[in-house]
Write a structure and sequence with these properties.
Largest sheet: 4 strands, mixed
Strand content: 15-25%
CATH topology of one domain: HSP40/DNAj peptide-binding domain
Radius of gyration: 32 Å
């Protein structure tokens, strides 16, 4: 487990408004609803909605990934257990996450100096006692399954890109330049000139050495191999035995269709290379989406406002409107009121599985600035006929006098 320190203070299930037992599909639906309702494009300038959107995106970044959700659940369960978890194999006790009791207590436990835990000669806890350092110590203790004192994977990397609205809606592939630690080509990431790194004899490859103090056992990074578990006797000259060098590399990133502004796209194993051949970290691409001159979106639906004439609404007509692909023809029924929205199914944002949202077409009357004599005469004739028929556009209007 490599739990970030902020996990101790976050309730990602609450941020998405779901129970901890929610299925992956329920979590996805909850996130999409929050993102749709609170997106900055839908509520520009609303700082509360923007904060809600960002918290939901952060929560989904963890809960939407099966592996990270499992780690998060395990971390939360350990926090809830309080004194029931002991890093030293003892029963939990009140007031301390390892179940310690001070020396001289009636339980008959051996004398114990807490300075051995928080710094000094202790077992790997930082002196500031921060929650992240404490839990790092819990999972790097002696006995049982142990992890290396050195990083077991490379650093995660974040970068940002800006896409046109239609690129984000349809998906695209873009090249990126990433600078950071990459595997050394001379030693193929091993850190050794010969390409092999023998196991450290002092710690037997664990990266830790252990010592006992009375009833308690402690572990610390091995001083011989600096916690790596390997003893490189012939370090590579190009990388100084680390297995990594700093360089710029080019990668191609596929952005899925329907990505929204502020969303993170995770590329596993595309982050910085790990030391001495350990796995690389992940690359997180933060996507920014430009506004479009024609389209707006709500979830998977596209919105467009189309200018029409009074005659097209009154008599009915078929108009041509743009989509993300080729234009489509939309039938406007006779007597359609100004501002009505017509739905064209399947011409919105593409979804997974080959489906797509809908295109919502709102018609808006465009009044001519000037008319020639023939049009003016015809319109006056129509206006008189309209009055003779008894039509009153303000009939039933609350402001009628």
């Amino acid at each position: 487990m490599n739990a970030p320190s902020e996990w101790a203070e976050k309730d990602y299930y609450a941020d998405l408004g779901v129970e901890s037992s929610a299925s992956a599909e329920e979590i996805k639906k909850a996130y999409r609803k929050i993102a749709r309702d609170n997106h900055p494009d839908a509520k520009p300038g609303d700082t509360v909605a923007e904060d809600r959107f960002k918290r939901a995106a952060t929560a989904y970044d963890v809960l939407g990934d099966e592996k990270r959700r499992k780690e998060y659940d395990q971390f939360r369960a350990m926090l809830r257990s309080g004194g029931g978890f002991s890093p030293f194999g003892q029963a939990g006790g009140a007031g301390f996450p390892g179940g310690f009791r001070s020396s001289g207590a009636s339980t008959g436990t051996a004398d114990f100096d807490f300075s051995d835990v928080f710094g000094g000669s202790g077992g790997g806890f930082a002196q500031d006692g921060s929650i992240n350092d404490i839990f790092s110590g819990l999972f790097n203790r002696g006995g049982g399954s142990r992890r290396s004192a050195r990083p077991t994977r490379g650093q995660d990397v974040e970068t940002e890109i800006t896409l046109d609205f239609r690129e984000a809606a349809k998906g695209t592939t873009i090249p990126l330049q990433i600078s950071g630690n990459a595997p050394c080509t001379s030693c193929h990431g091993s850190g050794s000139t010969t390409g092999t790194a023998p196991t450290c004899g002092k710690c037997s490859g664990s990266g830790f050495t252990s010592e006992n103090k009375g009833a308690f056992g402690f572990s610390r990074p091995c001083s011989e191999c600096d916690g790596s578990g390997q003893k490189i006797s012939d370090p590579c000259g190009d990388c100084s035995g680390t297995g990594t060098v700093h360089r710029t590399r080019s990668i191609t990133v596929r952005i899925p269709a329907g990505v929204i502004d502020g969303q993170k796209v995770r590329l596993a194993g595309q982050g910085e290379a790990g030391p001495n051949g350990t796995p690389a970290g992940d690359l997180f691409v933060i996507v920014h989406v430009k506004a479009d001159e024609v389209f707006t979106r709500s979830g998977d639906d596209l919105h467009i406002t189309v200018p029409v004439s009074f005659a097209e609404l009154g008599l009915g007509d078929t108009i041509t409107v743009p989509t993300l692909d080729s234009p489509v023809r939309v039938k406007v029924p006779a007597g359609t009121p100004d501002g009505r929205t017509l739905r064209v199914r399947g011409r919105g944002i593409p979804k997974r599985g080959g489906e797509a949202g809908d295109l919502l077409v709102t018609v808006q009357v465009k009044v001519p600035n000037k008319l020639d004599s023939a049009a003016t005469s015809a319109l006056r004739t129509y206006a008189q006929a309209e009055r003779d028929s008894g039509f009153d556009p303000r009939a039933g209007w609350a402001g009628a006098v």
